[in-house]
Amino acid sequence: MSKHIYMRSKAVHSVQRSAPPPPLQDESKRNQLDCVTEERPKEKESFFLSWYKHHLRNFFHAVKFPKERKGTSVVNPDNDDDDEENEYDAGLEKKPMQNKEEPTIVVQAITLPEISDPSLLLKEQSRRSLYTSLPALVQGRKWVLLYSTWRHGISLSTLYRKSQLWPGLSLLVVGDKKGSVFGGLVEAPLIPTDYKYQGTNNTFVFTDKSGQPTGTNNTFVFTDKSGQPTVYHSTGANRFYTLCSKDFLALGGGGRFALYLDSELLHGSSACSETYGNSCLANSQDFDVKEVELWGFVYGSKYDEVLSLSRKTETICRWS
């Protein structure tokens, strides 16, 4: 009996040892299962990363652009990451600029100061243009007629004497018999010297001759066909501003005078000068004088005093 049991037990153990293993699954199915199990966490990771980047980009976009500029760039969640980045960069480049209102320029009309007497040579438009060319030091002062041939006579010595009524810058105006008006800004008093120039670089010469060329360097033009004068400021080439002599009065130099008047104020000449870089101020180099005026720029407090002195007449000698 015990022997039978022993043999039965041995047979069972032998059967268990010799039993084949359970059938294995198909190798290809196992590989597919492994790939699926490996891809699922990667898909989850990619999904969460894309979702995080998308919301982070929207947050940055909302912070970067205020509400009024949100319409300038659009983020499309369906596009690829590269497309979104390109579209976002394009939005940064195409920000609309705010339209700035251009400042309004108000041009104020020039108010000319009071003038003591009507000029026989300067029209209102010419006087306005010359006024803008004056140094700021004398702008705003009243104009006083210090000398004129029609009031004080044709005498260069009288012109010199009247220029002493008010020292400083004065405007010399000459008219010829052909209708041209020209002259210059001089430094008063005009004192006759032995060929010694006087004045500063604040002086200039001018002409209203029609068709006047625009001039050379350092020339300021105000001009020409409209009847407004052409103004030639100092070029800095020399200091030959004003030359006063008992025999003549001359403006400019360096070759020839820009303006020359004889002692009787009957004849004169004009040519190119290096001092002002001007062309001939008159219609021809030699001309016959019709009228001469000298205007001073006086403070308001001294206006009445200088005006009364300037109106004291000299012996008048008129020509036809």
Write a short abstract of this structure.
By secondary structure, this protein is of the alpha+beta class.
Please describe the structure with a list of short key phrases separated by commas or semicolons.
320 residues; alpha+beta; eleven-stranded antiparallel sheet; 30% helix; 19% strand; elongated; disordered C terminus; TLDc_dom; TLDc domain-containing protein
What does this structure look like?
The radius of gyration is 50 Å and the shape is elongated. Helix content is 30%, strand content 19%. The N and C termini lie far apart (180 Å). It has helices at 2-18, 27-64, 81-93, 124-133, 149-152, 156-162, 303-310, and strands at residues 142-148, 168-176, 181-188, 197-198, 204-207, 230-233, 242-244, 248-251, 259-262, 267-269, 286-298. Strands 1, 2, 3, 4, 5, 6, 7, 8, 9, 10 and 11 form an 11-stranded antiparallel beta sheet that branches. Residues 120-298 form the TLDc domain. Residues 1-37, 70-89 are annotated as: Disordered. Pfam families: TLD. It comes from Brassica cretica (Mustard).
